[in-house]
Write a structure and sequence with these properties.
By secondary structure, the chain is an all-alpha fold. The protein contains three helices and two strands. It has helices at 7-30, 45-169, 173-186; strands at 33-34, 41-42. Strand 1 (33-34) and strand 2 (41-42) form a beta hairpin. It is rod-shaped and about 190 Å long. The chain starts with 6 loop residues before the first helix and ends in a 7-residue tail after the last helix.
Length: 193
């Protein structure tokens, strides 16, 4: 900060000084005595030169201040542009991230749905294959059981058929002899006390 205060206040004051000095010079020229029959006038050369010198002294400082203000304005605008571009870039990146995250989530959900559908299909296939396998084993077991049951029935029929023949023919002589011998071995003799 210089003696006149901040640049903006100093500029306003300097502009006012410049305007006042210009008004003073214009007034000097306007109030000068006119030359007869011409548009020329008589002006005090020393006063006008002093006023112009003061104006020259004020002008370079004001031009420097104006240039500084313009530079500051350009810096502020450039900073604002950079900040705006940074904000836009951040917003675009965030939008891309959100869109990407959303698309990743949607893709993950689609893949999950596909995996679940595949798992259901695989489970149904395995269940069907297991049912077919068990059904095949049960069918084989049923065939074996039918054969076994047929054999058992035939065996029982044979036994019944032989038993019916035995009843008709009477006891076999060899069987009667063996039965009598076995009884005799176990019974005590009739003459024993």
């Amino acid at each position: 900060m210089e003696a006149w205060g901040p640049p903006r206040r100093r500029t306003i004051a300097a502009v006012a000084d410049l305007a006042a000095k210009l008004e003073e010079i214009i007034e000097t020229v306007e109030s000068a005595r006119a030359m007869p029959l011409s548009s020329s006038c008589v002006v005090n050369r020393t006063e006008l030169l002093d006023a112009l010198a003061e104006l020259r002294e004020l002008l370079p400082q004001e031009i420097r201040d104006a240039r500084q203000l313009i530079g500051e304005r350009e810096d502020v605008l450039a900073g604002g542009r950079l900040e705006a571009e940074r904000i836009l870039a951040d917003a675009r990146a965030e939008r891309g991230r959100l869109v990407s995250a959303d698309s990743v989530a949607m893709e993950a959900q689609a893949q999950a749905a596909t995996l679940v559908a595949d798992a259901h299909r695989t489970a149904a296939d395995l269940r069907r294959e297991a049912d077919d396998y068990v059904d095949g084993k049960l069918a084989t077991f049923e065939i074996v059981l039918h054969k076994t049951l047929g054999s058992v029935e035939r065996g029982r029929d044979k036994l019944r058929g032989r038993s019916d023949l035995d009843d008709l023919a009477g006891p076999e002589p060899d069987v009667v002899t063996r039965a009598t011998s076995a009884r005799a071995e176990h019974e005590p003799p009739a003459d024993a006390p």
